[in-house]
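Chapter review: from sequence to fold.
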Amino acid sequence: MKLYFCGSVRGGRDDVHVYQRIVHALQRYGSVLSEHVSYSEVTERGEVATATGEQFIHDRDVDWLRQSDVVVAEVTQPSLGVGYELGRAVAMEKKIFCLFRPASGRSLSAMIRGADNADLFVVKDYSEDDVENVLEEFFNNLKRT
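The token string follows.
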């Protein structure tokens, strides 16, 4: 199974330790195409600039979205990029699992919370200590459908 992980890069890297934990857990269920989002070397400036630039990053990531079977997004840290990726994934009719930590004190956008339909788009509140169990439950349910 090919998995696409979404997490904030330029919107803030405060949750990179959470992304690392999620990506590590996701690797039990398949190949994580975008695991670089969890690398602590990736700063708010984004990936190391390449000769091909931002268009390359966009096109590569959209291609990974197309290839993916499931999209998992950590949506606690607001991010324009994550919102864009989720919109594209919805248009591609991908199975989407959004994770939000209420303990952060933030409020999740109604555009994300309101998209939860328990079919293709699922939003789950979780605590960092329970993330592995939440992912296991999601992927076990996915196998049943």
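Two observations follow directly from the output. Strands lie at 2-6, 31-32, 70-74, 95-100, 121-125. The helical segments are 16-26, 53-67, 80-91, 110-113, 131-144.
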